[in-house]
Amino acid sequence: MVHTTALPRNETGIETVLGILKQRFGEKFQTGQSIREQHGHTTTWIVNQAPDGVVYPQDTDDVSQIVRICAAHKVPVIPFGTGTSLEGHVNAPAGGISVDLSEMNRILAVHAEDLDVVVQPGVTREDLNTHLRDRGLFFPIDPGANASIGGMAATRASGTNAVRYGTMKDNVIGLEVVTADGTVMRTANRAKKSSAGYDLTRLMVGSEGTLGLITEITLRLQGIPEAISAARCSFPSVDAACQATMMAIQYGLPVARIELLDVLSVRAINTYSKLDLPEEPLLLLEFHGSEASVAEQAETFRAIVEEVGGSGYRAAATTEERNRLWQARHDAYWAMQTLRPGTQAFATDVCVPISRLAECVTASQAKLAELELIGPIAGHVGDGNFHTALLVDMDDAQERARADAFTGWLADLAISMDGTCTGEHGIGQGKMPYLEKELGPATVTMRAIKRAMDPHNILNPGKIVAV
Amino acid sequence: MVHTTALPRNETGIETVLGILKQRFGEKFQTGQSIREQHGHTTTWIVNQAPDGVVYPQDTDDVSQIVRICAAHKVPVIPFGTGTSLEGHVNAPAGGISVDLSEMNRILAVHAEDLDVVVQPGVTREDLNTHLRDRGLFFPIDPGANASIGGMAATRASGTNAVRYGTMKDNVIGLEVVTADGTVMRTANRAKKSSAGYDLTRLMVGSEGTLGLITEITLRLQGIPEAISAARCSFPSVDAACQATMMAIQYGLPVARIELLDVLSVRAINTYSKLDLPEEPLLLLEFHGSEASVAEQAETFRAIVEEVGGSGYRAAATTEERNRLWQARHDAYWAMQTLRPGTQAFATDVCVPISRLAECVTASQAKLAELELIGPIAGHVGDGNFHTALLVDMDDAQERARADAFTGWLADLAISMDGTCTGEHGIGQGKMPYLEKELGPATVTMRAIKRAMDPHNILNPGKIVAV
């Protein structure tokens, strides 16, 4: 486990707030140990730091009241979506109140003509897409987990479709936010673009609950494409797969998904998802568009594959086959863990300019071998973003130390390549030292903003930048 | 003329700084009246408020030194690109130093493999595209004017291509910024996406020089499409043209440009650019992609045109014809002024959800008639963004008052439609009251950020939010 420092607790304030919330929210406020621990849990090996209580607001006014109560007594407020974050984002190092937004899960308005939707933060992306399907619309961002839209906005999530549709920063039109003093503000109206003042929408997206609590999100939608096709192909090396990816991007191919799995990952999903993919570096692709355009895209990519010496290009013949491939990709995280039962997986998350991707992946594989670590690699390579799932025996202190060393080494490597220590998971607690390395002087400005927007440091303290 | 309030001047500080800059920058520091007035000038009717001196830094270190000198004496610093902004952005209401970045005009690195480029702020978009052409690359954002990239980033510019390629917020990867105390910070590395901390890139984009001076910009590039085709078609009403636009967007047609000109605008460009377009509401379009894709897009749009009763769909037969059409569109601002010689044009800039566009444009035309104003309309309608060029006899106080009334009425209408008072021109001095109306409580947070990042209010004071 990675132990992060506990911060000083305001015991008197916490005690007072627990009493007020109990009285005000009744059954919608819980302090049982198991519920509290669930709310400190993230899909991570960072040690659990449970909040003192969990409250389930029903609307924005509830959230505003909760924040006002906590602000009056200087008690931390930690927003919680579905708990699928990876860097200790929902931990409570100074105690305080977890604000579980899962019951604020209404889809407030679908504006089909404007291709946008207004949702509460607890709506999950799967629920949203189920709701939209009959309208011929979809929300493209897919981080793998069935995360909440609020959590996805708060961590600037992305995933497999980002190469074509962008990340949350590109797909959030505007937000309703409760600020540190309980004020409710809107960051933007529904216009598709705006030059009206500071871009608070983008400042809030990725702020991980440290600058305000997101209570409503207006999202851009896409029409479901006329045609969707998927394909896979194998490559003699990770380098060749990365070359093919780079050529596709340079060519301007509007590929909707282009995912790399290394040999170890392919082996894992073959076993877990009962597939028989060749055990070579693999690209999984998806093309969206008109029938003609999708066919043309596939043909173009096939030519690229041949040019770099790839083989076994195969289009998914049926929707079922396509879904099976992508389900396997989505399950890769779980599949990887079966490679070495009894271990815990810890996902790295670097993103580099695509010209450096092959070098970064290849160097990572060599470093893993050197450190005698098992770490299958999968990546959203069209964006230069990849994950190593380190499979670590948590009882082996030396191995944990080597995994830590690898994580730090990889972050340094990515930064030295003009890349980032996190493409999509965020900083949370786990990546704070790397953020300093990556952006140095900019973290001074980040701290100044944090202090200005949260003068008593009650909003998810101990994350992103320490103040 | 619109007179904006002059702010208190720090005469002692200004006097001191003038002396220091003269000594430090020699010929690169100018205080002649005509140069100073040029640097207060914008394409606007807001009254000129000239700075006390104009300095021409040669590199980031110069900018940092200038800011340090001004910070030490609490003297305003106003960044200047090409002076094509429209809302008094470069005015100096409290005096101070205009930092003319036009001599920082080097293209520092083209990363063709990564589809990005690193430029200094004084590079103009036309110079950039000329430089990129041989590499088969282009930078898509086109606000009409040959603006500087720094200015475009600072005002979150967009223009005709935004419907497909987004605005500056979508196309700036990272920035180098000199902050209020002269510190040089980078907001992001070159990775295509990142979740590393607060999105300072997007906070700076559109901050109009009020939070820092942009000294370097990393931009996303596009490959020049294999095929580009343009088309035009006429409609019986603005409403029908907007319907066609909305249908194209809903259909997911990846149109690169879709521009509306109303009857008055068509008449103006017919005269100015010697064209013979039918004097009806007109859409100008451009399609980018492969040969097959472009043909398919055009065919799809043609079907939409027929469905809404449009006529005279005509593809530009040659590159020359295409360029002529787009040159005419670019010259529309000048063409419009010839409709009523001796007047000054004043461009409004609202942006509304596309479902409200037809209603907003039609209501604007009715209001113009009611107020006896002449205001041709042209718009980036794929984004729901349009401009009315009010042609105002500046000697007629009553007419000026009616133009003012129209501008306020239109901003209110757009806001009531869940839109914005500015799609792309920015707030500057001219739109400050509308920003308050539009985002209310959010402006409190904007002020807090401004104070945190610029505690002595020296960075382009009196713009966006008053502090």
As a percent range, the share of helical residues of chain A equals 25-40%
Shape of chain A: globular
At the first level of CATH, the class of the largest domain in chain A is Alpha Beta
Largest contact between chains: A-B, 94 and 94 residues
Number of helical regions of chain A? 17
Describe the structure in your own words.
The first copy, chain A, is of the alpha+beta class and 467 residues long. The first copy, chain A, has two domains: 1-224 and 428-467, Uridine Diphospho-n-acetylenolpyruvylglucosamine Reductase, domain 3, CATH 3.30.465; 226-425, FAD-linked oxidases, C-terminal domain (Vanillyl-alcohol Oxidase, Chain A, domain 3, 3-Layer(aba) Sandwich), CATH 3.40.462.10. Chain A has helices at 11-25, 33-40, 60-72, 125-133, 149-154, 162-165, 168-171, 200-204, 238-251, 263-273, 291-307, 319-330, 332-338, 357-370, 397-416, 432-439, 441-453; strands spanning 29-30, 53-55, 77-80, 97-100, 107-111, 116-119, 137-138, 172-178, 184-186, 213-220, 222-223, 227-234, 257-261, 282-289, 311-315, 344-347, 350-351, 377-380, 385-392. In chain A, strands 12, 13, 14, 15, 16, 17, 18 and 19 form an eight-stranded antiparallel sheet that branches. In chain A, helix 9 (238-251) packs across helix 11 and helix 10 (263-273) crosses helix 13. Chain A is globular, with a radius of gyration of 22 Å. The model of chain A has no long low-confidence stretch (mean pLDDT 95). The interface between A and B is large, with 94 and 94 residues.
